[in-house]
Design goal:
42% helix, three-stranded parallel β-sheet, mainly alpha, 212 residues, single chain
Length: 212
């Protein structure tokens, strides 16, 4: 079933994977996976948005070395390739097992890629050459107004730098569980605009008609 408006282009699914010739296992992340997002160009050549598979590691563990290593390049490569739609965040065991806390861990990986792809703001304020010159060798940056102004927000905390009540770093998995629990208990999603809701209902209605 395709929930798309009549006449709209359908996203081309990019789920590049391999079959192990020794045991027929599904392998999403071999050592050489250079072709993982090349089909995006094919979809764009056809004028269609590309649906790119990401995350969804072959590992069944929520926070193992494998579960991080296999997916760490996904959001970066997706950004470079230009996928319009992405799926897989929070999933483990080849897209079949969802951990709520893994959503938070994968979100951290996504934001690391987002910052890596962001344009770096380079100007006199960010370079602070005058401050460096004033402090000089052996000087003290904490006495500078520029340092006091920027030190609170210059470091963007990753999930590995979340603090407990004593100021110590929480284990990443504990921080992920705390963050998800807070979102689950407190987040109130904004309602869709009326026009968007109307169009969505129309699409669902057409899909229901096709299934009858």
């Amino acid at each position: 079933m395709q929930l798309v408006a009549p006449g709209a282009p359908v996203a081309h699914s990019i789920m590049h994977a391999w079959a192990d010739p020794r045991n027929a296992a599904y392998v999403g992340y071999p050592l050489d996976a250079r072709g993982r997002y090349t089909p995006v160009e094919i979809a764009h050549h056809w004028g269609m948005p590309a649906f790119g598979g990401a995350f969804g590691t072959d590992s069944a563990q929520v926070d193992s070395w494998q579960s991080a290593t296999e997916v760490v390049l996904d959001p970066f490569l997706i950004g470079l390739a230009g996928c319009e739609i992405v799926t897989g965040i929070g999933l483990r065991e080849t897209y079949t097992l969802l951990y709520p806390e893994a959503i938070m861990l994968d979100d951290d990986i996504y934001h690391r890629a987002r910052y890596a792809l962001m344009e770096l703001d380079v100007n006199p304020e960010t370079l602070a050459i005058d401050v460096i010159e004033e402090v000089g060798p052996g000087g003290h940056f904490l006495a500078q107004k520029h340092t006091r102004k920027h030190m609170r927000h210059s470091m963007q905390r990753a999930i590995t730098q979340q603090l407990d009540q004593e100021g110590n770093y929480l284990p990443a998995l504990d921080a992920a569980r705390e963050k998800f629990t807070w979102i689950y208990e407190n987040h109130q999603p904004e309602p869709l605009e009326a026009a968007v809701q109307k169009e969505l209902n129309h699409i669902l209605g057409r899909a229901a008609e096709e299934l009858e």
